[in-house]
Amino acid sequence: MSPRSARLARLSRSVTFSACHRLHSQSLSDEENLKLFGKCNNPNGHGHNYKVVVTVRGEIDPVSGMVMNLTDLKEYMQAAIMEPLDHKNLDKDVPYFSEVVSTTENVAVFIWDSLQKLLPQGILYKVEVHETEQNVVVYKGEETIVK
């Protein structure tokens, strides 16, 4: 009987949260912000129903048949995404965004970093943040550019 090869798989789970924000950079003047961000620079902000898809990857456990228990992934996503972001003003309620512009790209980075602190090391594969049906950011964490 030959040993069984390790089988790798990716497992995804999604959540939806609602939040408001204002695209505004402290490094730019009010005029520059308005020119760059347009209506998304509205002083009163605007909101989205964000959809987040988290994908983990790993070996399929030969005993459980799972890469990860979905109940555990759900709890990690609750702690890393829903609790800090759902029904919040990102710029005022989430300390991370007091210094970082709350673009969808930066929301994806925030979620990645938050999940990395909770998930078993090396299992997080990607975070997709759907700001609208047309606008999606995919972040995989390892892609950086040295300047």
UniProtKB/TrEMBL annotation:
InterPro entries: 6-PTP_synth/QueD (IPR007115), 6-PTP_synth/QueD_sf (IPR038418), PTPS_Cys_AS (IPR022470), PTPS_His_AS (IPR022469). PROSITE patterns: PTPS_1, PTPS_2. It comes from the Eukaryota. It holds the Pfam family PTPS. One of its GO terms (cellular component) is mitochondrion. One of its GO terms (molecular function) is 6-pyruvoyltetrahydropterin synthase activity. Pathway: Cofactor biosynthesis; tetrahydrobiopterin biosynthesis; tetrahydrobiopterin from 7,8-dihydroneopterin triphosphate: step 1/3. The keyword Zinc applies. Involved in the biosynthesis of tetrahydrobiopterin, an essential cofactor of aromatic amino acid hydroxylases. Catalyzes the transformation of 7,8-dihydroneopterin triphosphate into 6-pyruvoyl tetrahydropterin. This is 6-pyruvoyl tetrahydrobiopterin synthase. The gene is Pts.
